Amino acid sequence: MFNIPDFPYTRDARLKTRYQVVRLFLKVKNRTAVAQATGVSRRLVNEWVTAYFTDGIKALDIKKQPGRPCALILKQKLQLKEYVCKHAVKDEGGRLIGEDIRDYIRDTFDVQYKLNNVYRLLHELNLSWITSRSKHPKQSIEAQEDFKKFPL
Fold first, then answer.
1. What does pTM read for this prediction?
2. Which of 8, 98, 109, 119 is the least crowded, having the fewest Cβ atoms under 10 Å away?
3. Burial profile 31-63: b = 16 or more Cβ within 10 angstroms, e = fewer
């Protein structure tokens, strides 16, 4: 009888399914039966079993999909980072918001971004989007200090 190897522990359900398919195949040696028992297509059973026999357990790992490439080149990203750092706090009060950055990207680089992708781009540029409270343009530091000295 063929010795069934121990598969590593994982919390990823997709990876568990792959391990289960290969483990079951090593027991019953029938790809159609494995597909029916696990609810996975026979094509995927074939792919996973073949990958396992060719390259081992590592071949079953889930590969991260690269996705669409960024519409901005490195020079544009650096220009964007400089803009955000320079305009993070406005002199007239308030602060830079994601919609402002989105408008800047559209007007400067002629590229449309959705708001959640603007925040993803900022994360890629190592910019945290945790902001402090904005300062009112008419606030007075002296008045605040005098208020702190007022007895309760």
1. 0.52
2. 8
3. beebbeebebeeeebebbbebbeeeeeeebeee
